């Protein structure tokens, strides 16, 4: 059941209309969520899922802040930060169910 839920939540990432850049942001957001969750759990936090989401959001915002500093080579898009957070949100449903 958990695998089916994960596949349903990740199905939009396989859609043809989503740019490769957004898919990469979602994947990195998922990795950031797992890292934040596991670190918070190791520190005996009462809310490791919130720490996981916070780490996904912080990573997305930091990446966009770096893009804003170099407008010649990068574009700052709010959709990238949202995609990063979205990757973390997917992981909230499937990691350590």
Q: Your description of this structure?
A:
With 97 residues, the protein is mainly alpha-helical. It has one domain (2-8, 20-94). The chain contains 4 helices and no strands. It has helices spanning 2-10, 20-42, 48-69, 78-94. It is flat. The protein starts with a helix and ends with a helix. The model has no long low-confidence stretch (mean pLDDT 81).
Summarize this, please?
This protein has helices at residues 2-10, 20-42, 48-69, 78-94.
Briefly note the structural class of the backbone: mainly alpha
The main β sheet shows up as: none
Query: How many structural domains?
Result: 1
User: What radius of gyration results from the CA coordinates?
Assistant: 14 Å
Q: What string gives the helices and strands in order?
A: HHHH
Oligomer: single chain
Summed up, the helix count is: 4
Mean pLDDT: 81
Distance between the termini: 11 Å
Helix content: over 70%
Strand content: under 5%
Spans of at least 5 consecutive residues with low confidence:
none
Total number of beta strands = 0
Question: What overall form do the CA principal axes indicate?
Answer: flat
Write the layout of secondary structure elements.
Blueprint: H1 2-10, H2 20-42, H3 48-69, H4 78-94
């Amino acid at each position: 059941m958990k695998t089916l839920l994960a596949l349903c939540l990740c199905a939009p990432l396989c859609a043809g209309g989503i740019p490769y850049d957004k898919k990469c942001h979602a994947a990195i957001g998922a990795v950031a969520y797992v890292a934040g969750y596991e670190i918070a759990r190791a520190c005996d936090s009462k809310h490791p899922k919130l720490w996981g989401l916070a780490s996904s959001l912080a990573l997305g915002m930091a990446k966009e802040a770096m893009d804003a500093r170099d407008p010649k080579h990068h574009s700052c898009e709010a959709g990238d930060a949202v995609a990063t957070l979205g990757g973390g949100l997917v992981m909230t449903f499937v990691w350590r169910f």
